[in-house]
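Slide 14.
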Amino acid sequence: MKLSARNRLKGKIVEVRKGQTTAHVRIDVNGTVVTAAITNEAVDELGLKVGMDAYAVVKASDVMVGVD
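Slide 15: predicted structure.
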């Protein structure tokens, strides 16, 4: 699969929690957990399960940074 996004974070799925229409997929990327909100249909089509290797792909027009 080729993507134009350059921000691909490889990790392992640690949780898949389905809601009524949207699922939260948590991916452990070297000790930092990234959460993606995707459709339940996408979870089923991709066959996402805990323990699988996966990529969190970040594609955004804006990224905000904050400091204390």
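Speaker note: Helices lie at 40-46.
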